[in-house]
Amino acid sequence: MDIIADEFLKLSNFQRAWEKVAENRGCAGVDGESIDKFASNQTINIYQLRNAVSDSTYHPQPCKQVIIPKKNGSWRELKIPIVRDRIVQQALLNVLYPIMEAKFSAASFAYRPNLSYLNAVEKVADWRDDGYSWVLDADIVKFFDNIDHQRLLKQVRIHIDNPGILCLIKSWISVGVLTEEGLVLPQKGIPQGAVISPMLANIYLHEFDEWIAATDLKLVRYADDFLILSSTQERILQAKLEIINLLDSMGLMMNAEKTQITNFNRGFRFLGHGFLEKAIFPIDVNSDKLKSAIDKSKKKVSTLGKKHK
Question: What is the pTM of this model?
């Protein structure tokens, strides 16, 4: 594992991490340092930041709370690290991604290089064509906010057993968020808005992916939005109870309002697409009812991702 630490602490790795963070832009954190301000003295800043991590004098700062409106009228809280913390997180991602990519499930499509939600949509079509016609359409209640810290670190340790790296990750997920009322330190959850969080989310759900892979069920997962597929109604009904229990053991809960058992003849929507019999088509994500979306879209039906046997 020392090789991972050595690769992580290379100055060239921190330079690449800075370039990625700069490319993504984003706002300043609680310290007020913007991308442009860091860039004005980037060579020295990168060198000092890398050295601080190397000699353990680096300490992350609290995240900045940013509230953004969602299309359904509710709000989402983002927790934005300072620029320097984003660089260190990206530097670690640069070396951990290749390791984790070799281990992640083929059923997981979010936050992964060269994969997108369209690949997940196509995979659903593949399973449909293989006879998996019954579907448990579900997602997880406030997934990012309910990730158990100790369980997460235990899962990370399975893949990367390096004390220094584990301490860094622990500091990032427990550093807290600065709100108008003051600093809030989380008992659980990881910050949506942090560079490291998407990979940590996939690590946390890797156990979930593996459990389902060992059964006769099929899984297509995009972050916390997922489909479980089976060839029979009886099996999918049984699977719902199994998934509820599995998530409960992980400190998570299935979203009852957004969960349904259905099939391709009845139709459903997933990742912005409607599924009806052999048809797959983009739908209005703001539509309250699938039926109305299907009715509007029937004239422009396509068979995206249909498998030719």
Answer: 0.87
